[in-house]
Amino acid sequence: MQSTINDISKTLVRHVSTVSPGLPIVIGEAANVGDFVHQGDLIIYVSDKVPHDYVLVENPQDIDRQLVPLGGGPGSHHRLKSLDGVTIYRPNDWGKSDTDLRGPCIVFDKPNQIVHEPGTSHPHGTVDILVPMVTCRYQRNLSDDERAARRAAD
Fold first, then answer.
1. What is the dihedral of CA 28, 30, 34, 38, to 10 degrees?
2. pTM above 0.70?
3. Cα–Cα separations (whole angstroms), residue 123 to 23, 117, 139
4. Are strands 133-138 and 42-46 parallel, antiparallel or unpaired?
5. More confident residue, 51 or 4
6. Which tens digits make up the pLDDT trace of 111-125?
7. Torsion region of 66: left, alpha or beta (phi above 0 gives left; psi -120 to 50 gives alpha)
8. Higher pLDDT, 149 or 52
9. Contact between 34 and 46 (Cβ < 8 Å)
10. What is the pLDDT of residue 16?
11. Does residue 131 lie in a domain region?
12. Which residues contact 123 (CB under 8 A, 6 or more apart)?
């Protein structure tokens, strides 16, 4: 039994040492609706339906590869690798409020990637997308007031 525990321990140490920020990750066919990964401040959820208040992006252009509203800062360069075989939906008022955490919903006809453009201050690994649909959300930042210590309430 002791050798089994040692073997498991060595395997876990080896596995944990290969996981760190900035490495590529795959959302594979075995992923379930609700599973998610982070690419820095972009959260990518496996989805099965377009949110009700989202609208279709008609005739997407290169600028529509951008998954974070422009002006989001130097680290906000999360983009689709290709628009080929992609249908994009966004909240109706996407990019108009810095408190709205909703990002695009993307339907894929074939595998694609979400890349973080090189030369940015916070490089993130590529996310390979092998599922038919994802919905993006943004990490929230807390204000100084929200970080203040409070009494727990139950």
1. -30
2. yes
3. 9, 8, 16
4. antiparallel
5. 51
6. 999 998 766 556 788
7. beta
8. 52
9. yes
10. 52
11. yes
12. 22, 116
Distance CA 17, CA 14 (A): 5
In a domain, 83, yes or no: yes
Q: How many domains does the chain have?
A: 1
Whether 99 is in a domain gets the answer yes
Which residues form the domain of 90?
Answer: 42-140
* Confidence tier at 154 by pLDDT (50, 70, 90): very low
The per-residue pLDDT of the chain, averaged, comes to: 83
Residue at 34 is within a domain: no
| Of 80, 92, 94, 87, the residue nearest 138 (C-alpha) | 94
